[in-house]
Structures are given as C-alpha cells and as structure tokens.
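Reproducibility note. Readers wishing to regenerate the assembly model reported in the main text can use the exact inputs given here. Chain order matters: entities are listed in the order in which they were concatenated for prediction.
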Amino acid sequence: MARVGVVTFPGSNCDADMRRAVQETDGLEAVALWHKEADLQGVDAVILPGGFSYGDYLRCGAMARLSPVMQAVTEFANAGGPVLGVCNGFQILCEAGLLPGALVRNRDLRFVCDRVRVVVSRTTPFTNVSDGVLTLPIAHGEGCWVADPSQLQALDDAGQLLFRYVTEDGTRGDNPNGSLRDVAGVCNAQGNVVGLMPHPERACRPALKGIDGQLFFAHLARSLA
Amino acid sequence: MTAFVTVMLRPGILDPQGLAIADGLAGLGHKGVQSVRVGKVFEIALDDADNVQERVTQMAKDLLANPVIEDFTVEVR
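Running the prediction on these inputs yields the following structure tokens for the assembly.
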C-alpha cells in the first residue's frame, strides 16, 4: 500500500476531501501531515490541497511556503518524489519555486466557481497523455497563471503547460480566468511536481456529478505500485 | 530607522483591480485618469541603521515581492 501525505496548513479547507479521495483509491493510503511537521513520515507522494492557507496573506501561497513542512516537501520533490498541488496547493508550489510562473487575480475580478474541461499534454505520476478531455470543478479568485514571456515557449515546448482549459469537444481554448495560453496547470521539467487550479478530489464519485478526478489518483497508485 | 518597500505588479501583468478602480474614478466624475495600478507598501521598522538599503532589498527579494509578477523599490527614511 503506497502512502500519500496530504498537508494541512492553517486555512486549508480541501484537506479532508483530498484524504478521502486518496483513501478511496485502490492501493493508496492517506496520511495526514501538519504544516509544522518537518518530517514527511516516509510517505511515497505528497499532496498540497486547496483552501486559503494563512488567509492568503501577502500573496496566495506565499506564507505557506515558509512552513516547516515545505522544506521537507522541497527536498522530497528535488529527489524526484511525486508532488501534487491543487488550487491553493498549486499557488504554494509556484511561490516555493517548485513550479514555474505565478497565479494572479482572475481577469474579470470574479471568484469563478464552475465546471471546466481540460486536456493533458504529458504523462506524469498524476496524468496520462491519453486521458482525453477531463471535466473538473474549479473554484478560485486568483487562478490566472502567468509566467515570464521569455520562458513561456520553452515551457510549452517541454510539455510543462500540462493542463489547458478547452471547449467541451476539446478543439479550442475556453479560458475562465485569463491565464496565459489557457493554462490550467503546469509541471516541473522532470514531471514529478504537478500543480493545477481544478479540483480532482471534488470529482471522484458519481454523486458529485463527475468521476474524472479519480484518474489522478489511479495514475498515482499505478506509478507507485 | 524605517524602510518603505513599494511592490507593484510588473508592466505587462494585467491588473484588473486597477482597471476597475480607474472605471470607478471615471464614474465619480474624475477626468483625465489614464490608468490606475494597484500595489502594496510595507513599512519596516528596524533596530539599527546598518546597511538598511541592502538588508531590506534582500527582504523584498526573499519574501515581500514575487519576481515573476512584481517589481519593488526600497526607500529608507
């Protein structure tokens, strides 16, 4: 049984849902990690869940990056361990420099709560290029991903613009927040660190009107088996 | 000794708050506003006056500003 650590920061609010989604996946066991713990308890993967860590003080994710657990997460990621950040977790990974770019206020200033479609560009511990068009929920006010224009093409060429918002048939971009190149999520060069604004853990059972999120956890279970 | 760090979104980064505020000013009848950009100011009180510019610049790089999206200036008073 592979053990997946789910970190709780002060202000995290998707940690319980995330642990449940992990726990309900064959081959995975959820381990709760507290932000003050500098020890990852030997987990095989780490997930930073959504929420409003530290009340979004300074910038979303900027304070969480300073938590003792993040030193351990950084070492784990640099050693090739699989790390997933969802929503606020994505913001934290960008602030920590583990993922390229940054997330700023949505183009229309609105908090967007919706169901979106995304396509995947690359196989990682959490994704497979053959995943097709995924339908996932989003809920964020600061999900507009930006990056230095000089790096953007290189990131694109390397497949690091991992998730893009698309129309239902997957043929065109359909952007809810103004992110560059319709980016919904990115990965690092090695592909072991992944972040995205949509919430896979909120699309893991038919009662929630979506099960595409299960793929993330199933892929992780396979990659850790 | 007090240092003021001003952090602004870099040119080219969309600032929808600034756009909304500019619209608001126009709506109140203020004429001639070309644009508004929203930033942050940090007032940092320090124990001593040693290398304040250098130290506070490092603080801005370490935490106060995110270089991907923001520029900063440091003023010591």
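We highlight two features of this model. The longest helix of chain A spans residues 68-78. The CA atoms of residues 102 and 146 of chain A lie 5 Å apart.
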